[in-house]
Amino acid sequence: MSATRTRAPGRRDSGRRALGRSGNGRRRGDRRGSAALTTAMTLMLVYTMLPLVWLLLSSTKDSSSLFGGFGLWFGDGFHLFANIHDVLTYDGGIYLRWFANTLLYALAGAGGAAVIAALGGYALSKYDFRGRRLLSALVLGAITIPGTALAVPTYLLFARIGIVNTPWAVLIPALASPFGLYLMRVYADEAIPDSLLEAARIDGAGELRTFLTISLRLLAPGFVTVLLFALVATWNNYFLPLIVLSDPQWFPLTVGLAQWNGLASGIAGSGAMTTGFYPMVITGSVLAVVPLVVAFLLLQRFWRSGLAAGSVKQ
Amino acid sequence: MSTFSPSAPPGDVRARAPGTVRGVHGLLFFTPFLLVFLVAIAAPLLYAVYLSFFQDRLVGGVTFVGLDNYRRALTDGLFHAGLLRVALFLAVQVPVMLGVALLAALAIDSGRLRFPGVFRIGFFIPYAVPSVVAALMWGYLYGRRFGLVGDIGGWLGTTLPDPLGRSWMLASIGNVVTWEYMGYNMLILYAALRAIPGELYEACQMDGAGEIRKAWSIKIPALRKALLLATVFSIIGSFQLFNEPNVLQSLAPSVVTTSYTPNMYAYNLAFNGQQFNYSAALAVVLGAITAIIAFTTQGSANRSGRSR
């Protein structure tokens, strides 16, 4: 997918294209320079990809070839499907339960966060209301409050009101995304012309209808960006669920996998099955990584342009 | 929702931003965020501050102790050691990661790479990997049991230093974090590069400037804001370090102690030590330090930007 296909609002790169930056007419030294550049970047690509390749290869091994053989090639036999079977059936299929929990937290949490951020960002961008400046400042301030700093306090508060160890304890914090709101506000500034809203008003459209039928469509790339990054944040969340959940039935994948790793390393004190857990942790990790990677690959076109708007303006 | 009358209410002569309309609709649209903000951010924060003024004592139960918990934090060697550790981490890992991300963004933007899309997505993919999985994966690679480090050492005919040992652990965690977030930062910087107006390059080209000159005098200044954003997020991430060391702890329990980072310390105090009040105080101190450093970074960068 080429970069020229994505269109961020306010991007004016036609001039550089016209200059043929990536085209012909280079001086001689450039070719040497680009060979060095390609080599350096290829090394970096090896660095980012190698661990994932190792993980994929390892998911096809049983424990004996995992410990014995060379890491970056296949072992004896192809055990991927046996491993997947082990992962999915262990402990009455608890992994599937974790997967479903993660899906719930990620979809409901991230979906909700994106909708709330879109509404709020739109409000700050297109409406003038009492307390607007104060609320804008509030959002900017909240961005610098790290979610993890709130994890222990959140546990203490939620324990007090009795919602720890329920999905709400993970979902409610996931809904608050000040950075998402900020991004949506910047995006709304750029993507929705005020004249369009005024025309809709003159036509007698209600504010909510205008938002749903006109503005939301224009906000789509920004919305997908916020959605994807909220999806990553909730899918990968570990600290908060580790704290607020104690019943394995409600664990997301991250907490469950870390627990299996604990069993594999033998720190949990279970003498019975220890190293046999390693193939399960590895295969379970592969299964946990695939959905997000696929989502990012499929939705590239959207999030790249959305990200462009957010990172430029401030 | 009823239809909205475009004319301002009579008597309202306050100036308003062009294109915005007054009324309750904006507030209504903002309300959902306000609610989750109050429940998920403001309330835990205030509750933590409240709790930090109390102590659960063996004799007398929960008592108000004023600033005692904060006084204890001031002299707590374990807390200080953790803070120093993440400060060291911040000082080394963040510049390395952002430097590499900057080089990658400039390289991809230079138009001299074949298949730039492959590099862009390839660098970015680790961001989609949960940090728990990243830490597990790297932890296994580091480990002697079936790790690559042992294999590579075998090839070279020597024993490489143990990445999970005492002296290398922080660097090993830094590598995991760099691996996870380099591509994300690269993408933020790259997106900012794509937004540079073409006329600037045109002018530069006429002056006969080469690629490096172009990078130095146009691209890097244009990246100031994106770099600032990336720096602030990285600072926050470093001070809040938890996931990676907590996962690696199971592989090297004697190296990654329960107070290895301030967040791990607060976590273990609360959940293994039942010291909720002191833990709340530490969370407040840590949050305040993080926010202050993030603000100062932003402030100083803005000042230097204005004086230019």
Indicate the topology.
The complex is a heterodimer of chains A (314) and B (308).
Chain A lengths: L13 H5 L9 H31 L4 H6 L11 H47 E2 L3 H12 L7 H11 L6 H8 L2 H14 L2 H9 L4 H12 L1 H16 L3 H6 L8 H13 L12 H21 L1 H13 L2
Helix pairs in contact in A: 4-7, 4-8, 4-11, 4-14, 5-8, 8-11, 8-15, 11-15, 13-14
Chain B lengths: L20 E2 L2 H27 L2 E4 L3 E4 L3 H7 L2 H33 L6 H9 L6 H12 L5 H9 L12 H26 L3 H9 L4 H12 L1 H16 L3 H6 L13 H10 L4 H32 L1
Antiparallel strand pairs in B: 2-3
What does this structure look like?
By secondary structure, chain A is mainly α. Chain A has one domain: MetI-like (MetI-like fold, Orthogonal Bundle). Chain A has helices spanning 14-18, 28-58, 63-68, 80-126, 132-143, 151-161, 168-175, 178-191, 194-202, 207-218, 220-235, 239-244, 253-265, 278-298, 300-312, and one strand spanning 127-128. In chain A, helix 5 packs across helix 8 (178-191). The longest helix of chain A has 47 residues, at 80-126. Chain A is globular and about 75 Å long. The two termini of chain A are 28 Å apart. Chain B is mainly α. Chain B has one domain (68-307): MetI-like fold (Orthogonal Bundle). Helix content of chain B is 68%, strand content 3%. Chain B is built from 13 helices and three strands. Chain B has helices spanning 25-51, 68-74, 77-109, 116-124, 131-142, 148-156, 169-194, 198-206, 211-222, 224-239, 243-248, 262-271, 276-307; strands spanning 21-22, 54-57, 61-64. Chain B has a two-stranded antiparallel ribbon with strand order 2-3. In chain B, helix 3 (77-109) runs parallel beside helix 7, helix 3 runs antiparallel to helix 10 (224-239) and helix 12 (262-271) packs antiparallel against helix 13 (276-307). The longest helix of chain B is centred in the N-terminal third of the chain and has 33 residues, at 77-109. Chain B is globular, with a radius of gyration of 25 Å. Chain B starts with 20 loop residues before the first strand and ends with a helix. Residues 1-16 of chain B have low confidence and may be disordered. Chains A and B meet through helix 1, helix 2, helix 4, strand 1 and helix 5 of A and strand 1, helix 1, helix 3, helix 4 and helix 5 of B. Strand 1 of chain A pairs parallel with strand 1 (21-22) of chain B. Chain A: Keywords: Cell membrane, Membrane, Transmembrane, Transmembrane helix, Transport. Chain A: It holds the Pfam family BPD_transp_1.
